[in-house]
Amino acid sequence: MPASTPRPGGPDPIDLLAVGELLTEEERLIQATVRRFADDRIRPQIADWFERGAFPVRELAPELGKLGLLGMHLDGYGCAGASAVAYGVACLELEAADSGLRSFVSVQGSLAMRAIHAFGSEEQKQQWLPDLAAGRAIGCFALTEPDFGSDPANMRTTARRKGEDWVLSGSKMWITNGSEADVAVVWAQTEQGVRGFLVPRGARGFTATDVHGKLSLRASVTSELAFDEVLLPANAVLPGVSGLRGPLSCLNEARYGILWGTVGAARDCYQAALEYAKGRVQFGRPIAAFQLTQEKLVEMALELEKAYLVAWRIGRLKEEGRARPAHVSFGKLNNVRTALEIARSARTVLGANGITTAYPVLRHANNLESVLTYEGTSEIHTLILGEAITGEAAYQ
Predict the structure, then answer these.
(1) Is 229 one of the catalytic residues?
(2) pLDDT at 10 (0 to 100)
(3) What is residue 154's predicted lDDT score, i.e. its pLDDT?
(4) Which fold has domain 19-134?
(5) What residues does the Acyl-CoA dehydrogenase/oxidase C-terminal domain cover (predicted)?
(6) Which of 335, 288, 344 is CA-nearest to residue 309?
């Protein structure tokens, strides 16, 4: 993590426990590369994009693809095949710039590409994955519906047979990249259970309408998708899975990216508060010299390091093949909650300046309100952990 200005021989104030030293040389190199991209390409413009509610997907996707960040944890088809922790630190640096940027990369790689990679036919993989990895094509993942978010088993979108073809009907809501997607991975009820379908941009009866008026994730494309008797060929279905195991396994991959990304948002808020406190003078001295301000900064530093360690440990478990959904829920629940509290506390250090786009903290706080509830609400992750602890399911 980047340093502030430590006392000679003292710890790095941004990484007091030197958690970054637990990363391999390759992981640190990836982290530094993504950080430079974010600093050079995203930070100078992100406040403007957020204020205007804009995100230049088509412009940024090829650049992210060139860096190998799209589907970077997948193997083959133009994907980098990076380790879990390498992917994690990339997500950390992306979300340190903005949650919308990390969200785009997560949806492209961990949801759309991962679904095709894990459950698609070889023909589907060859058709879509190389272009998605390079950023020449955009993907989205359509599971959530207007009335069914945490309860996807009761989704109303359906696909029925018509000869050898399929007819898709229904709607999906809160779909990142929806209106920009060249291919939508759409989950629907069928006679064989929930199945995934690849719906190309421009399919007759398929429309995407952007959601406006957002106060969170403004630098991100969010859409509602509608399917009015969309006729799809037989080879549009993902052959490798049926039931909710398919989409839920993809969500687990996206949640893993979130538990790393939110550490980046938290770090950015803490660093902004620390730098501001050292330069803001009140009553003749920097507010960093006041006890109450130091207490806030210390609490932020403590929680930031703990969240970083949680992410690192889950990443290593994932690399060993030992990470379970409950581990990912642990990280998602803890780290999002931690990041949101750090953002709110940092805002108080900045005072009125903290509510402007000149500083990142309230932008991060607003974004984190969405991150708190997407890819599984806090309540859902609490129940996943409750079941892991007690052996009793309490979802209903």
Answers:
(1) no
(2) 84
(3) 84
(4) Butyryl-Coa Dehydrogenase, subunit A; domain 1 (1.10.540)
(5) 243-389
(6) 335
Give 314's strand partners.
none
Q: What is the mean pLDDT of residues 91-112?
A: 96
* Pair 232, 328: CB distance under 8 Å: no
Q: Which CATH class name applies to 245-390?
A: mainly alpha
Contacting residues for 125 by C-beta, under 8 A, at least 6 apart: 77, 116, 117
How big is the chain by its Cα radius of gyration, in Å?
Answer: 21
Please pick, among 319, 375, 379, 392, the residue that the annotation labels catalytic.
Answer: 375
CA dihedral 249, 250, 254, 255 (to 10 degrees): -20
In this structure, what token pair is assigned to residue 144? Answer: 């959530």
Rounded to an integer, what distance in angstroms lies between the CA atom of residue 78 and that of residue 44? Answer: 30
State in words which class domain 139-236 has. Answer: mainly beta
Query: Where does CATH 1.20.140.10 sit in the chain?
Result: 245-390
**pLDDT tens per residue, range 139-189:** 999 999 998 877 788 899 999 999 999 999 999 999 999 999 999 999 999
Which residue has 């060859």 as its token pair?
126
pLDDT at 2 over 70: no
Residues in the chain: 396
